[in-house]
Amino acid sequence: MNCYFKTSLDWSDIMASKDYEKYLQFSRTKLMCHLMAFALHRRMILSKKNVTVNVIELGKEREPNNNGRMRTTSALSNSTSTLSMCRRAESFVHFIENPLFDRISGKYLDSTGKEIRSGAEATDERLQERLWTFTSDLCKEYI
């Protein structure tokens, strides 16, 4: 399985204040999460900190709807049930508490812990650093 993003970041409108479209911005935000996670992972390694940083893809889930048929829910679904949300929370707890994942860091994993190959943009260290610097500068305005 491969992770790819439908769009690159628009550095001239990174905050989507000029042009906002929810699916486009969702894809860009997902890319930004990957970039920041991999940049943070690299910083933890360089500073010799024992902190794991991974991207967990909880993905789409099949669950029954009101008439008994199965439907697919995703991160963009506004009708995700409580059961579906609990299953996703359970996956997070599994990653946090399972000692098998103590030494796994800098990875993109599915909900079962299987590694997914990240897209080229997400693993581009220059883009990671550019976003890290942009974010640091943005935070300085508010701190």
Instruction: Work out the radius of gyration.
Output: 17 Å
Mean pLDDT: 83
Structural shape:
globular
Strand-residue fraction?
5-15%
Protein name: Helitron_like_N domain-containing protein
Q: What tags apply to this protein structure?
A:
143 residues, mainly alpha, two-stranded parallel ribbon, 3 helices, Helitron_like_N domain-containing protein, two-stranded antiparallel sheet
Any overview of this molecule?
- This protein has 143 residues and is mostly helical.
- It has a domain at 22-58 and 87-141.
- Helix content is 40%, strand content 10%.
- It is built from three helices and four strands.
- A hairpin with a 5-residue loop joins β2 (61-64) and β3.
- The protein is globular, with a radius of gyration of 17 Å.
- The mean pLDDT is 83.
Helices and strands in order:
Elements: H1 22-46, E1 55-57, E2 61-64, E3 70-73, H2 82-97, E4 108-110, H3 125-140
In short:
This protein has 143 residues and is mainly alpha-helical. Helices cover 40% and strands 10% of the residues.
